[in-house]
Amino acid sequence: MNKDTNQYHDESHLIALLKKKDKAGISALYDNYSHALFAIIHQVVDNQEIAEDVLQECFVKIWTKIDSYDSSKGRLYTWMLNIARNLAIDVTRSKAYKKGQKVQSIDKDVHGSAGSVDSINVDTIGLSAVVSELKPDYQLIINLIYFKGYTQKEVSEELEIPLGTVKTRVKTALEKLRTVLSN
Amino acid sequence: MKKEEFISSGLLELYVLGSISNEELSLVNDMLAQYPELNAEVMRIESDLIRLAESQSPKPSAKVKSSLLDAIDVIEDSQEKLEEKKAKVIEIQTSEKGKTSMTMLLMVAASLALLIVSAFFNYIQYQEIQLAKQTIASLNQEKEVLANDLSTYKTSIESAENKIAVLRDTANVTIPMKGLDISPNSLALIHWNKYTNETFIDIASLPEAPTDMQYQLWAIVDGVPVDLGVFDVLKSAATLQKMKTVGNPQAFAVTLEKSGGSPTPTMENMYVLGAV
């Protein structure tokens, strides 16, 4: 394991610092996760400045709500991911955001139903070269679950594929990506 | 479930992605507890997902971190101040409470005292009012009695005036009727007007008539008794009672008859008699 992985490892130590309201905790947490969380937020709000605002809000929320994190319900990263995604989605529902994004979002609204076959290309727009190495079906599933926060069931219904297939496709997609990312 | 089977199921990926049902979550937790080495697999997946996300966008600008730390300072500061204030408020509240309870006690005591005093005076006042009411009632009663008396006196004065007028009238002749054997102490006067023939009886003394009987006045005209009407013995001595008119009487007499009078006098019940 490399140094980075070790940092992600050290979750319980980070959580202990955060619960003590030690600023070193939030600082380390930011260093470890801000890029990934920013990317998730950016995928949703599609605007650098807004995404940075949401990112700050996200870490403030992590700081103030850390006591409600329960490790038996999942990983810290998963918990933070949900906070980031929900804040980003909330922002896109605000009037100010809608006004500012009107022109840009027309395309996406037209193809609002994320799972339809026609919208595959639209939904994967913005995903980087890494993801584009995947087959469209896999790109779509990663986009829906990871960046849009769909549940397995929602993906299954949206794409009209069995739940088991959703699971194996996620697995396969991530294995493919691992190879790509390692290169 | 075997470890390898579990790893290939994709559940660990979905666990890190947070797209997992509650049953699946307990299965994952059970497996992680049973095979601690699976944690390494979880780390690997998480690391992959983080790198995947990072590959999607540039890093946020550096100012975000400093701005975040500033924001957290502000939050903590205001939190501290808030707690200080809360502590102060509690302190003040507790110290005020002591004072307040003493003040309250005094106030309550004062209120109670006022209430008692007020109740006492109210009671006194009530008593006085009751007394005043009683006085007014008895005064009213007295007033009524006096008014009755007054009207009685008025009546008796009027009748006295009438009597005087009759007596002063020179046209009137007064004939005393003296008591007969049946009632020797009885006495009544007749005032008879020789021009108008008006006849008044003035009872000086007659025994009270039995309830079903009345006195009847008679005039003797040409030897024949003429009915001049029945009368009652009135309490007021001053009263003259006007009887029927009669012309040319030779004598007057009073007999006790059945109530309402008789057509002819009952001679044995003749009380008084007087000749003109």
Automatic annotation (TrEMBL), chain A:
GO biological process: DNA-templated transcription initiation
Database matches in Pfam families: Sigma70_r2, Sigma70_r4
Gene3D superfamilies: 1.10.1740.10, Winged helix-like DNA-binding domain superfamily/Winged helix DNA-binding domain
Family per record: Belongs to the sigma-70 factor family. ECF subfamily.
Domain RNA polymerase sigma-70 region: 29-95, 132-178
Sample GO molecular function, one term: DNA binding
InterPro entries for the chain: RNA_pol_sigma-70-like, RNA_pol_sigma-70_dom, RNA_pol_sigma70_r2, RNA_pol_sigma70_r4, RNA_pol_sigma_r2, RNA_pol_sigma_r3/r4-like, WH-like_DNA-bd_sf
Name of the protein described by the UniProt record: Sigma-70 family RNA polymerase sigma factor
Residue ranges of coiled coil: none
Cross-referenced NCBIfam families: sigma70-ECF
Keyword annotations: DNA-binding, Sigma factor, Transcription, Transcription regulation
From TrEMBL, chain B:
Cellular component, GO, one term: plasma membrane
GO terms for biological process, alphabetical: regulation of translation
UniProt xrefs under Pfam families: RskA_C (PF10099)
Anti-sigma K factor RskA C-terminal domain residues: 107-266
Coiled coil: 65-95, 129-170
Record-linked InterPro entries: Anti-sigma-K/W_factor (IPR051474), RskA_C (IPR018764)
One MF annotation (Gene Ontology) recorded for this entry: sigma factor antagonist activity
Descriptive protein name: Anti-sigma K factor RskA C-terminal domain-containing protein
